[in-house]
Amino acid sequence: MPALIDDTYAEAFRSIYTSVLITARDRYWLDRAIDACTGNASSSILCDCEAGLDRYVGPGGDADTTTPDGRLGAVVQFHVPRFWKERAQKLERAALVRVSQNVLTCPTTACFNVLPADGENWFPLGRKIAYFGDGHQYKDERFGRRVRVVPILSGEFVIERRFGWADGLMGGNLWFFGETADGALDAATRAAAAAATVAGVCLPFPGGVASSGSKAGSKYKFAIASTFAEYCPTLRGKEGIQSRLPEGVTSVQEIIINGPDLPTIARATQAAIAASRDTPELARISAGNYGGRLGKSFVYLHPEKQPG
Q: In CA terms, which of 11, 101, 154, 163 is 20 to 30 Å from 186?
């Protein structure tokens, strides 16, 4: 029997994000660059950004999308909350650190811009990373792109000069209430895989799944988020805890979906629900929200309620 779908919504909040296109000789080295540059970027609670794979492009990836150098590539997104102070500078810093330390260093890679960079919303990522060349770097035009070329021990690293950034959304989510731990995890795994097939979204947590969903705030002043005690199965029945878990639920898993806009995240949400609702030992699918206190973009689980 399919799991129940709660009549609720996930509460997404505004972000700014940049997308970079990484290319490499083969899938092995491309995946190494993706894994490295998106590492330790699951949650803006304590990370410098939220990052994840958007999609593979070029040969062996999206057949409708080519890459500048004709090789296999991947689009990676970096998001920071719009409510952060100096958000543009923090986004640039996150991209600078991650591309310079994890893409430049990865064998056979090159790096190109994805978002429009001809207005005001761009940063000179290529120029700053090119300083690694110690004066031997130079400007060039490759593949119809204005790039910086950095001599390195293995040959050269090519990176586009400007990288654009744009408004996006963070915090789309689904919760999977399992009758067993395996039921919750299997459902979340299926959901994450399905959501990831929607071009334009990224799922920043390990494997796309967050095992420790949180609430805003904490009893400790130094912490901005903490465990959602009312949904922790092992706290059911503890004095002072008013459990919100449905009867029979023993485990909860969550997925988080970031992307460029509400329609894209809504499509990924519906793909995730369709792929997971028939999972054995899954009791219910729900979502986390704070009544509009965190964000004003609502992703409804019942698609007929989604505006537009």
A: 11
Q: Based on the domain organization, do 187 and 286 belong to the same domain?
A: yes
Pair (91, 140) in one structural domain: yes
What domain count does the chain have?
2
How many other β-carbons are positioned within 10 Å of the β-carbon of residue 237?
Answer: 7
pTM exceeding 0.85: yes
* CATH code, 160: 3.30.70.520
Instruction: Clarify whether residues 213 and 288 are in a common domain.
Output: yes
What is the domain range of residue 255? 4-10+168-305
Beta strands 138-142 and 145-152, pairing class:
antiparallel
pLDDT in tens, 42-97: 999 999 999 999 999 988 766 568 899 999 999 999 999 999 999 999 999 999 99
Shared-domain flag, residues 136 and 174: no
pLDDT of residue 63: 59
- For residues 71 and 28, state if they share a domain: yes
**pLDDT at res. 307:** 86
